[in-house]
Design brief:
Blueprint (H helix, E strand, L loop, with lengths): L6 H16 L4 H29 L2 E4 L10 E4 L1 H23 L11 H20 L3 H19 L5 H32 L4 H7 L5 H19 L8 H4 L5 H26 L6 H20 L4 H22 L2 H32 L10 H4 L1 H15 L5 H16 L2 H30 L17 H19 L1 H15 L2 H8 L7
Antiparallel strand pairs: 1-2
Pfam family, one: Proton_antipo_M
Keywords: Cell membrane, Membrane, Transmembrane, Transmembrane helix
Membrane topology: Multi-pass membrane protein
């Protein structure tokens, strides 16, 4: 048992409570509390990752109650990797938000609401990754979603309320599906502990197991924005404040992907729905990238590319192989970082150009070369230009697909290659129009010529450096992802960590 495992959940919650008690005064102290809490979460996550890789899954039984009676938190290689990357991303986005002065001067994003909500969002994300039972995962999802309801509608502007309403309705539908799946599994097996479920589901009638699996995957697919359950996303994320949209785009959909990975490796390893997942992956790739190609707003374009690249991750899961899972884990880590960076860069474009509409942008390569660099590097990374991490992840997925073979898998390999090329086309279109074309004759009234706040640049640059670190350390990181994939394909490792003396059945 490790006392560190609950800390990624507890630290943000305690920090949010302290900030609420402080009230609207002492903004400098409140900023320091936010940064200190998120930095501490990152430090704990890194330690948990080292221990999980060296010693196996780390567990904590809250209140001293043994599983399955009490709440068990588990940090294996996958959850520890997700924790570490998520903590790094949330910290960098907070730095960006402080630089943007979201906290004090932006009338659309009041400090007293933003900071506690953001910390509770972080706590919910960490709880979802660490949860050892489905109901605690549901609690983590709801913590995250309640905070996101506040964040996506900050300021109460018409556009944000309209987009937030769609987001809330879809999120509630997903939560209902999740609860239905939990109820079915509990009624059939008498437990919601995932280690016990992995042992008991095999004894269920096939029809009952399929109903539970379909409900669970549908709930996670909505959260992950898998096509055709993704139509809500392009309207919801672009209207949110830049730091909020960035962390939503980079992180929240990956929690749905994480749920799909857990369901298909730990709970339902028989692979009955793999063909359905392959078809959904192909449709997500093509629908997302075709939607991106026709957009003239940078944030909406990035939202459609987000949908298309979720298809890559579902593709890797559906292959049901160690190579496919390893490539998926690597690609998830890469995409969390790169997609967040691109949304932050879109915020920098908006601040300097006064808009994110390509029809009214131009000449930023001369007036804002640093913004150009902060957009260009992650754009090429997302497009899969070698030797960047996007190329490494896509190459791993394509190799795993070619090794498995089959008509549907071959079609997915071809679709993944086409999607990568069209993604690059869409991002080059943004670069050409916003940076290389001539400045508009009538610049938007909100365009700024003053220097960008240092913290905004620092938050974006830190994520660019992190994404480049994935390339520099591509070999060791990919090897770690391969060990995480091997652990996922051996559910008994997870079960023994939760029930060291047996009793999972």
């Amino acid at each position: 048992m490790s006392v560190l495992v609950p800390l990624p959940v507890l630290l943000p919650v305690l920090a949010a409570g302290v900030k609420i008690l402080i009230g609207p005064r002492r903004p400098v102290l409140k900023r320091a509390i936010s940064l200190a809490a998120l930095a501490a979460v990152l430090g704990v996550a890194v330690v948990l990752l080292v221990r999980a890789d060296r010693d196996g899954p780390q567990t904590a039984r809250l209140g001293g109650w043994p599983a399955p009676v009490g709440i068990t938190l588990v940090a294996d290689r996958l959850s520890a990797l997700m924790l570490a990357v998520s903590a790094a991303v949330t910290l960098c986005v907070m730095v960006y938000a402080l630089g943007q002065d979201v906290a004090e001067r932006d009338r659309d994003t009041p400090l007293s609401v933003f900071h506690p909500s953001y910390l509770l969002l972080t706590a919910g994300v960490c709880d979802a990754f660490l949860a050892g039972d489905l109901f605690n995962m549901f609690v983590g999802f709801e913590m995250m979603l309640m905070a996101s309801y506040v964040l996506v509608t900050l300021g109460g502007t018409m556009a944000r309320v309209r987009a937030g309403t769609t987001y809330i309705v879809v999120a509630l539908l997903s939560s209902m599906l999740f609860l239905v799946a939990i109820a079915v599994l509990y009624a059939a097996t008498g437990t919601v502990d995932m280690a016990q479920l992995s042992a008991r589901i095999a004894g269920l009638p096939a029809s009952v197991a399929r109903i539970a699996e379909v409900a669970l995957l549908a709930a996670f697919a909505v959260k992950a924005a898998v096509f055709p359950l993704s139509m809500w996303l392009p309207d919801s994320y672009p209207s949110a404040p830049t730091p909020v949209g960035a962390v939503f785009a980079g992180l929240l959909t990956k929690i749905g992907v994480y749920g799909i990975v857990r369901a298909e490796t730990l709970l339902f390893p028989d692979g009955h729905l793999r063909r359905v997942l392959l078809i959904a992956a192909l449709l997500s790739m093509l629908a997302g990238v075709l939607g991106a190609m026709v957009q003239i707003d940078v944030r909406r374009l990035l939202s459609f590319t987000l949908v298309s690249h979720i298809g890559y991750m579902v593709f890797g899961v559906a292959l049901d192989s160690a190579a496919g899972l390893a490539a998926t884990v690597f690609y998830v880590l890469h995409h969390i970082t790169v997609q967040t960076t691109l949304f932050l860069a879109a915020g920098l474009i908006d601040r300097r150009g006064g808009t994110t509409s390509l029809a009214r942008l131009g000449g930023l390569a001369r007036t804002a070369p640093l913004v150009g660099a902060l957009f260009f590097v992650p754009a090429m990374n997302l497009g899969g230009i070698p030797p960047l991490s996007g190329f490494i992840g896509k190459l791993g997925l394509l190799r795993a697909g070619l090794a498995q073979g089959g008509p549907l898998v071959d079609a997915l390999v071809a679709g993944a290659a086409v999607t990568s090329l069209l993604t690059l086309y869409s991002l080059v279109k943004v670069w050409n129009q916003a940076f290389w074309s001539a400045p508009p004759d009538d610049p938007p009234p909100d365009a700024r010529t003053a220097r960008l706040p240092a913290a905004m640049v620092a938050g974006s640059a830190a994520l660019v450096v992190l994404s480049l670190a994935y390339t520099a350390a591509g070999g060791p990181l990919y090897a770690l992802c391969e060990r995480a994939a091997a652990e996922l394909l051996a559910p008994e490792t997870y079960t023994r960590a939760v029930f060291p003396s047996g009793g999972a059945t």
